């Protein structure tokens, strides 16, 4: 028996609806309101940033297939059990931007591990695409003090990848900023605070780690834990 003229269009319509429903349920990048661009006060990018576009934060594994290739290749989450605090919030923020000297789109990815608001402990990994290394050429094992009297240590993560570890030792420091998303207002904004920082540059990607743990009280064990995590990100355990 041949299908009726009514049945065939109905089957086609059902197929289209199912197809559209499947597409709409897949994760996608969604632009959102936002202000500011996060970067280290110690080591600012060598070129001015413009045309910043913010996207709504997503779960780590949801955002991974949506990342540009350069960031997707380096995407690496950490074992949160290695952090010295309980993690209540995990989210990934993607930001697109351009430099003042060209129109090529670049991206910045932030992975946030955060305890609840009362404790304010956090660990942030930020990866920024940049062709120019903004870090100064410092010798391994060098240790110095910044203008606030805080320590800056240089360590070799790999043979060709030095790391600078800024450790707060005083009541003053450079400011540190990270992205946080306000669900009620649907806006990504910069939270400005103080944090210990780890920076290294690896083949077109500037890594910037910030951590605020136990009110930034100097703790050598915590510092060693953070360096160990940085080494994992640099491909060395």
Polypeptide structure, described:
This protein has 237 residues and is of the alpha+beta class. The chain has helices spanning 7-25, 60-63, 69-72, 220-233, and strands at 31-34, 49-55, 89-99, 106-114, 122-129, 143-145, 151-158, 161-167, 176-182, 187-193, 196-202, 205-212. The protein has a twelve-stranded mixed beta sheet with strand order 6-7-8-11-12-5-4-3-2-1-10-9, with helices on one face. Strand 7 (151-158) and strand 8 form a beta hairpin. The longest helix has 19 residues, at 7-25.
Total beta strands: 12
Alpha-carbon Rg, integer: 22 Å
Give the amount of beta strand, in percent: 35-45%
* Gap from first CA to last CA: 67 Å
Low-confidence stretches: 17-24
Count of helix runs? 4
**Spatial shape:** globular
Strand order of the largest sheet: 6-7-8-11-12-5-4-3-2-1-10-9
Q: What secondary-structure arrangement, pairings included, does this model have?
A:
Elements: H1 7-25, E1 31-34, E2 49-55, H2 60-63, H3 69-72, E3 89-99, E4 106-114, E5 122-129, E6 143-145, E7 151-158, E8 161-167, E9 176-182, E10 187-193, E11 196-202, E12 205-212, H4 220-233
Parallel strand pairs: 1-10
Antiparallel strand pairs: 1-2, 2-3, 3-4, 4-5, 5-12, 6-7, 7-8, 8-11, 9-10, 11-12
In a few lines, what is going on in this structure?
It is built from four helices and twelve strands, in the order αββααββββββββββα. It is α+β, with helices and mostly antiparallel strands and 237 residues long.
Sum up the structure in keywords.
single chain, 237 residues, alpha+beta, twelve-stranded mixed β-sheet, 4 helices, 36% strand
